[in-house]
Amino acid sequence: MSVNVHVDARFQLSDAEKLGAEITELAALINVAMARFLDLIYEFDEHRYWEQQGFRSCAYWLNFHCGIGFAAGRERLRVARALATLPSMRAAFSDGELSYSKVRAMTRVATPENEGLLLMVAKHGTANHIERLVSQYRRAEKLNYPGAADELHRSREVNYHYDDDGCLVMKAKMPAPQGELIIKALERAIDAAYDPDEEIPVAARRADALSNVAETYLNHPDNSGSTADRYQVVVHVHEDDSTEGSCLENGPLVSAETSRRVSCDCCKTVIEEDENGEPLNIGRRSRTIPPAMRRALRTRDGGCRFPGCTNHKFVDGHHIKHWSDGGETSLENLVLLCRHHHHLVHEGGFDCRKGAGGEIFFVDRRKQRLEEFQTSRSVSIEESLALMYRRFADVDVAAATSAAKWYAGEEMDMEHAVWLMSSLGAPDQRNGERPECVP
Fold it and tell me: Which helix (H) or strand (E) holds 133?
């Protein structure tokens, strides 16, 4: 596909310059398309159209229908909502003058009062200039904010994931006093378990100490009882006790020796499976789902079965044919649903059903069946580009539209810019006062 690059005919460009001009012109068009995209999802979210399809939020809808991850989807929604209050920035973005990277950074701190200053920097500087300005302004604002300690408390978090080699990776952020308490507990656990002369790295000792602290907590009498099943570490093995392919529930594969060690002192639940690996019934006892059947249900479903939902932690067992209507507590009549979709199925007008072939499906408030996967026509790259060029043919976009206006290597007075941002900022919504100017 050819692109008409807007270049002055008096100049003869090299192949590299022509290709560069085509790239920068296309980048400006992508900016225009992204601005339109944000306008559309803002309208879609404002009318809450995603609710009609049973999604928990617009971010879930974007994840399912547009292939956008939750974090990226929420960020786009944040930017779209901010642009609704910043008309000048929105207009420059729609004209292709600003990149999404610049707009995303500016909307973290932009107000109607400082919008003009940010636009001036964005049009003349690079995305790096904007990122640095926003970062330093936010740092100065935090230092001048009287409630900084309370905000640090609210920002506490612990995140974890399994690495490619099957190890658990954890990252924590918390206020200093809370962190000091954890450090003291780890140091005491290390002192109780190791001899100071042992040649074991400190980091490895901390890992073992953290595991000991968790085990001590779970073994405390106050933390035992009927909820213990929720805290069990479940390892799936084969019926013949072979350890090949053993894995943690909702986790990675574990080694044969790890599987044998775990099985030395534990309870065993037998879940009978058919030739396709589908768990069979464990038996009908009562309306309440027994722990063994719940584990089988989690093995089969993995998480919420509602189309587009990825929740696999906070889920309930739902009777497809309700217990009050004669439904059994059996795997064939059970399905996992998260709390949100469980509410929709019971009180929200949606329904969960089974087809003649045993497949589980859902219907919306109009009693129309929800498709489990998005079905859309495959479009080639060339068709997509041609459509974008036609759609925005009336937009005056050239190779230099999105480019920085300052010369290469030119620097800005960041300290002065932060001072201007602080003096132009709108009243702080958290305490009704303006942050003090940073000299």
Answer: helix 127-144
Q: Could you tell me what percentage of the chain is helix, strand and coil, using 3-state DSSP and rounding each to the nearest 5?
A: 50, 10, 45
Per domain, the residue ranges of the chain are 15-148+381-424, 157-229, 291-363
DSSP letter at 366? T
What DSSP string describes 89-120? HHHHHHTT-S-HHHHHHHTTT--TTTHHHHHH
pLDDT beyond 60 at 407: no
Tokens, residue 270: 């037998």
- pLDDT tens-digit series, residues 75-113: 999 999 999 999 999 999 988 889 999 999 999 999 988
Name the pairing type of β-strands 334-338 and 168-173.
Answer: unpaired
Residue 344 CB-density burial (10 A; 0-12 exposed, 13-18 middle, 19+ buried): buried
116 C-beta neighbours (distance < 10 Å), count: 12
What distance in Å separates the CA atoms of residue 247 and residue 277, rounded to the nearest whole number?
15
What is the widest separation between alpha-carbon atoms in the chain? 87
Supply angle C-alpha 141, 142, 145, rounded to 5.
85
At 134-187, the pLDDT tens digits run 888 888 877 676 666 677 778 889 999 888 888 889 999 988 888 888 999 888
- Helix and strand numbers (H, E) in the chain are 15, 8
Please state which of the ranges 3-7, 90-94, 155-159, 356-360 shows the lowest mean pLDDT: 3-7
Q: What is the pLDDT of residue 399?
A: 58
What is the rounded CA–CA span in Å between residue 269 and residue 283? 13
